[in-house]
Structures are given as structure tokens and as C-alpha cells.
């Protein structure tokens, strides 16, 4: 849905397909870069305040991001929201994997990690 919204705004701003594709790539790379630096900070924060609180906070941030993205009226606004909320994203599942490491006995962790990965994969399908 985000790529469709992006294309809609790009068409509205008069960008051709090649320019829009290049801008989309820069946006995605910027978000990923922000997440690379933010994820370790989120996991350290969850060590201090608790995993549940941080997971709930990240989920609320995702909801807010979705609402702001839907209301974005320009590519600049859309990019700022998407990259800005990347600081609060846990799209790599570090917190969830930390929960498994904290609560599941070592002998059963491989199965638990497999189930989590399967659930995420099925969710994407």
C-alpha cells in the first residue's frame, strides 16, 4: 500500500517512472539505515523497562505511522514520516527474538524461533 501511495504522490508531483523508482529506492534505503541504528537502542531500552512495554510502544508507533502516511500530501511529508518512524520500528523482530531468549528454555529455543519465523512468513503471505 505504501508503494501505491508513493506512486500516487509521485504522479501528482510530475515525476516520471524512473525518477519515482530512484526516489523510492532512496527512501527505502534511508528507512533501513535508520532501523539498523535504532534496533540496538530499542533492545537496550527493552532490557531496562521491559520487553512488553517496548513492543506495545513500537506497535502504537506503527499505527501512528500508518495514519500519518495515509494523510501525507507530498513526497517530502511521506518520506519524513516513513524514515522518522523508522527509529521506532522493530521490523527485524529483535524484541520478539529477545522475548524467546528470555522465556524459553535453551533446549526448546530452536523450535520457538522456527515457529516465530513461520508465523511472520505466513503473515507476509
Structure description:
The protein is mostly helical and 125 residues long. Helix content is 81%, strand content 0%. It has 6 helices and no strands. It has helices at 2-12, 17-49, 51-71, 75-84, 94-103, 109-124. The protein is elongated and about 55 Å long.
Q: Which percent range describes the beta-strand content?
A: under 5%
- Overall helicity: over 70%
What's the overall geometry?
Answer: elongated
Question: Cα-atom Rg, whole angstroms?
Answer: 17 Å
User: Could you give the order of the helices and strands?
Assistant: HHHHHH
Report on the biggest sheet: none
Q: On the 0-100 scale, what is the average pLDDT? A: 86
Put simply, the count of helices is: 6
Terminal residue distance? 15 Å
Class by alpha and beta content? mainly alpha
Count the beta strands: 0
Instruction: List low-confidence stretches.
Output: none
Question: Care to give the gist of this entry?
Answer:
This protein has 125 residues and is an all-alpha fold.
List keywords for this structure.
125 residues; 0% strand; 6 helices; mainly alpha
Topology record:
Layout: H1 2-12, H2 17-49, H3 51-71, H4 75-84, H5 94-103, H6 109-124
